[in-house]
């Protein structure tokens, strides 16, 4: 019986080098990775990033329509040539505003207006002060501002606390940004406006005279406030008590005023006696 012939093993598969060695298995990124053919699908392209702008719409500076009050501010601002970067209107703009509101410049109504606007720089109103005042008092145009001014004026006239607040705040507005203390010449111009003799300060004329002739120095914030308190509490200087811890300046003023008034009274009495009577007997 014939023996079956042994089956020869199959030769190894041909390799890329043709030497009969098996090709290494493909690996990611390895040297044995099969080359990519032109028709093979590559990784999907990255989606393009779309940038959107969140800025104000074209034609506006802040993304909203400018209110009439903001337009009025810009108009007044153009009247003054302030330093670059100063977003405010100054003396000319303030004078124009007073004219449009029908109030005299540098008189009580103007200081009431400045008080409610909240301006604290020397004869200057900034954009933020102007717009905050418009928002807080719900003012949309100058007509409403003029109407509100009448209400504010009445509060200053009738409410001592409101008047004191307005008076004290005016110190910074009058003083000037470059001054640490209020120059005396500025104080002498404003005191008779805020503290008139008829209804506020019976001794204002003597006070102004003494300051100009004797005091001759800048006015501190404390003196500014104490003068208001003096005008309220001391209606008759003969009742003045230096032990009430008044500033030395007021002690000196009262001493001068008593002496000055006494000499004036004696002189008046002597001149009256010398005038012959014209009354028919």
How would you describe this structure to a colleague?
It is a single chain. With 281 residues, the protein is an all-alpha fold. Helix content is 49%, strand content 1%. The chain is built from 10 helices and 2 strands. The chain has helices spanning 68-77, 91-101, 108-117, 127-136, 142-158, 160-175, 184-194, 204-215, 221-233, 248-274, and strands spanning 88-89, 125-126. α5 (142-158) crosses α6, α6 (160-175) packs antiparallel against α9 and α7 runs antiparallel to α8. The chain is elongated. The N and C termini lie far apart (193 Å). The model is unreliable at 1-62 and 263-281 (pLDDT under 50).
Largest sheet: 2 strands, antiparallel
How are the strands ordered across the major sheet? 1-2
Amount of helix = 40-55%
Cα-atom Rg, whole angstroms? Answer: 44 Å
Q: Which of globular, elongated, flat, extended, rod-shaped describes the shape?
A: elongated
Number of helices: 10
Short structural summary:
By secondary structure, the chain is mainly alpha-helical. It is 49% helix and 1% strand. The protein has a two-stranded antiparallel ribbon.
